[in-house]
Design goal:
The chain is of the alpha/beta class. About 15% of the residues lie in helices and about 35% in strands. It folds into 2 domains: about 45 residues, 2,3-Dihydroxybiphenyl 1,2-Dioxygenase, domain 1 (Roll); about 70 residues, Roll (2,3-Dihydroxybiphenyl 1,2-Dioxygenase, domain 1), CATH 3.10.180. The N and C termini lie far apart (about 35 Å).
Length: about 130
């Protein structure tokens, strides 16, 4: 029977130095250098490994989600840190880039942004 000791996810970036700056300073996440990349410390002892890849292709899906208490507060803080939020054609987003699903019974309030390598991240208010 399969019995792993632990599990973690990982994703690539094109520049580990830019990733350290973005995840460590812009998003204020704790990380450690590990195996040629960085190991991001998330909540509840969760981790994700970020590694540099020469032929990196950005994820075309949301690959890391951050649950927040208040999406507007989180969005404003991130914008002040230099994060730019994405707008997607056909998505019912407001002027800030938030899809407000809670009020329409269509899921969470969510807004998307990208890391320096072009990977898609989100903030969610559930």
């Amino acid at each position: 029977m399969f019995k792993p000791k632990m599990a973690f996810s990982g994703f690539s970036v094109d520049d580990i130095k830019k990733a350290k700056e973005f995840y460590g300073k812009t998003l204020a996440l704790t990380f450690t250098d590990d195996m040629g990349g960085i190991r991001l410390q998330l909540l509840n002892d969760s981790e994700v490994w970020v590694y540099e890849k020469d032929d990196h292709t950005p994820a075309i899906y949301t690959m890391l989600n951050f649950i927040v208490d208040d999406i507007d507060d989180a969005l404003n803080e991130l914008v002040q840190s230099g994060v730019r939020f994405e707008f997607y054609s056909g998505m019912p987003q407001d002027e800030k880039g938030v899809m407000r699903g809670k009020s329409k019974n269509m899921g969470p309030n969510i807004a998307w942004f990208k890391d320096p390598a072009g990977n898609i991240l989100s903030i969610l208010e559930v």
